[in-house]
Amino acid sequence: SDIEKGTYPHYMLKEIDEQPGVVRKIVQAYQDEHDQLTIQPEILEAMQAADRIHIIAAGTSYHAGMIGKEYIEKLAGIPVEVHVSSEFGYNMPLLSENPLFIFISQSGETADSRQVLVKIKDMGHASLTITNVAGSTLSRESDHTLLLYAGPEIAVASTKAYTAQLAVLSILAAVTAKVRGIEIGFDLVQELGIVANAIQAQVDSKEEMEQIATEYLSTTRNCFFIGRVMDYFVGLEGSLKLKEISYIQAEGFAGGELKHGTIALIEEGTPVIALATQEAVNLNIRGNVKEVAARGAHTCIISMEGLQERGDSLVLPKVNELLSPLVSVIPMQLISYYAALHRDCDVDKPRNLAKSVTVE
Ligand code: AGP
Description:
By secondary structure, the chain is of the alpha/beta class. Helices cover 45% and strands 16% of the residues. A 5-stranded parallel beta sheet has the order 2-1-3-4-5, sandwiched between helices. A 5-stranded parallel beta sheet has the order 7-6-8-9-10, sandwiched between helices. α2 runs antiparallel to α9, α4 (59-76) runs antiparallel to α11 and α11 packs parallel to α13 (324-342). The protein starts with 10 loop residues before the first helix and ends in an 18-residue tail after the last helix. The relative contact order is 0.14. The model has no long low-confidence stretch (mean pLDDT 96). Bound molecules: 2-deoxy-2-amino glucitol-6-phosphate. The site of 2-deoxy-2-amino glucitol-6-phosphate has 15 residues, from α4. 2-deoxy-2-amino glucitol-6-phosphate (AGP) binds next to α4.
């Protein structure tokens, strides 16, 4: 069954491997009989009625929300704010007249997010939950639900739920754009197919990922992830993954922000993993890599076909730049997995953590 490990040593590795299939399954689940991407009309109405969208989430789902904001703003043209749920309830921004609240939660049970849902419902606002669990608390209590179809996620470290969240958010944004009469300029079904193949190529390159983990992370105390634009958000997710399963202190930074303080932490041999998948900022991020390398950092560049330079540690297949996070997160997951494995950590059940945080 879906929830058995089979021959896999860990659920996390199994769930990483399932990602190409999850993306394909989502495309199917959101297609109508004419192979057109489709979203329930009530949800599209709620999207169109919104003068502003607030995404509410925690942890990995929050990182997916940051990318969801890019999709909804860039494709559908609706302004979006992204909030950590535990903060939002106690420090609400000034709300517009017709906000729509989108809750992103793998489990649908995160207490911090549920508290926000209760508050905004009291205020009379509309809500949509994007979750992997049909019938979960957030799904039952919000006006609308979009499902992730990722299958049960058992490992504490979220992997396939994140890629599923990005895929569903891209579909929501693209279909909303269509009903708003906005031409997005590419065929999302086709692009997600290319993405699924690119993810497959990454999960088939485990030796490379293990080698990077060995070279950069076997003895280090800390590690930095840098990137710009979409790559910055993926770096945040990479640092969370590495922290929670390998206990290496890791931080994600916007490439340009590092020199405003954090660069003081760079010492001889400090690992800095840089993502370079965004053409508009390729020179900028490479400049940031030179800045840290000049201070002794052990730099690892993960780039994308068309943007690569000699010496890059890994070159990802070319995909639509907006969708690159679905591909570039795979090395983040696998490098973290092998770093944890090499350090004899309990990959599926890291210390101090629960799969879903059902207390405030
Ligand atoms: C992910 O690796 C974490 N274990 C954690 O940050 C998780 O994403 C967070 O607790 C939110 O959970 P949810 O998506 O079920 O709401």
